[in-house]
Design a protein that fits this description.
By secondary structure, the chain is of the alpha/beta class. The chain is about 35% helix and about 20% strand. It contains ten helices and twelve strands. The strands form two sheets. The chain has a six-stranded mixed sheet with strand order 2-1-3-5-6-4. The structure holds nicotinamide-adenine-dinucleotide.
């Protein structure tokens, strides 16, 4: 029930009907007797400037989750950014401070890492392959760098994106080994699909099927795609005996990070509390 006293958070993007955050947060708020609610906002790009001004003046709004396509455009309009949001040039969450200042962070990578920990994965000293160097791939790579991974190999059809991300990682983590060539998967402890390949009913694989034959059974294989839950990549990895991490597990692990940054949930949200 939204009352006069209810404090709000929002999620902004376009389109917005497909997002799961409103039902996840509103269920958590209701189950935990919080006088809070999340609103979905499908925003026109032309209204971005006015939207940011409104957020500054919106006194019963605690914060806003940001999704595609506004993660980059909003980062450049806020009053402060975390170090990682600044390095990545993108935000997926905004907190409204009491004085109206808007501060942004990007917790896509923290959510991903939280999910890997539930699979017993420890990044320190390990080797990862990241397929897809866009917004999410960059956030995941940065979080792995922060967690002390030894080596990251980047793959994307856009060599420009590989170059930009390699530079961001090189500046932030001087000891990190960064590569972009690989002929086999057997050296990797973690393989991540951070591209949209495999979404829907396409049946597509983000790496050639022949290369998947070189996966070793100890490698954690993760996908960011949420629909289908078991993507063609995860299906193949499972057949090879690898542990797998779904896009839904990453999204769920992110909830606490988003909520904690806005100050409306604890960092850890357990599935039984939803
Ligand atoms: P983006 O457009 O910023 O980046 C996608 C990247 O994938 C691009 O650099 C593109 O060149 C690359 N790519 C396309 N085809 C490729 C291929 N065959 N091999 C390698 N790279 C390829 O998009 P984004 O914001 O990074 O989102 C990527 C995916 O992540 C989307 O499907 C989105 O729905 C999903 N996502 C999941 C979560 C989650 O919590 N599970 C969170 C955010 C986004």
């Amino acid at each position: 029930m939204i009352r006069g006293s209810t404090e709000l958070v929002a999620i902004v993007g376009s389109p917005i009907a497909q997002v799961k955050s409103p039902e996840n947060f509103n269920t958590w708020f209701a189950n935990n007797a919080r006088d809070l609610a999340m609103l979905p906002i499908d925003l026109q790009e032309a209204a971005l400037g006015a939207f940011v001004d409104n957020l500054r003046g919106w006194r019963n709004l605690r914060g806003c989750v940001v999704t595609v396509p506004y993660k980059q455009a909003l980062a450049s309009r806020l009053d402060g950014l975390s170090e990682r949001a600044q390095a990545l040039g993108s935000v997926n969450v905004i907190r409204r401070e009491g004085d109206g200042r808007l501060v942004g962070d990007n917790v896509d990578g923290a959510g991903f890492l939280g999910a890997t920990r539930q699979h017993g994965f420890v990044a320190t000293g390990k080797r990862a392959l990241i397929v897809g160097c866009g917004g999410v791939g960059s956030a995941i790579a940065y979080a792995l760098g922060e967690a002390g991974i030894a080596s990251i190999t980047l793959s994307d059809p856009s060599s420009e994106r590989v170059g930009v991300l390699g530079e961001v990682l090189g500046n932030a983590f001087p000891k990190l080994e960064i590569a972009s060539l690989f002929g086999s998967l057997d050296a990797f402890d973690l393989v991540v699909n951070a591209s949209p390949v495999g979404m829907g009913h396409s049946g597509e694989l983000p790496v050639p099927a022949t290369l998947l034959e070189t996966l070793k059974a100890a490698t954690l294989v993760a996908d960011v795609v949420t629909s289908p839950e078991i993507t063609p990549l995860l299906q193949k990895a499972r057949e090879r005996g690898c542990p797998i991490q779904t896009g839904a597990q990453m999204a769920f692990a992110q909830l606490g990070h988003l909520g904690a940054f806005m100050g409306v949930t604890p960092l850890e949200i357990c599935s039984h509390e939803r």
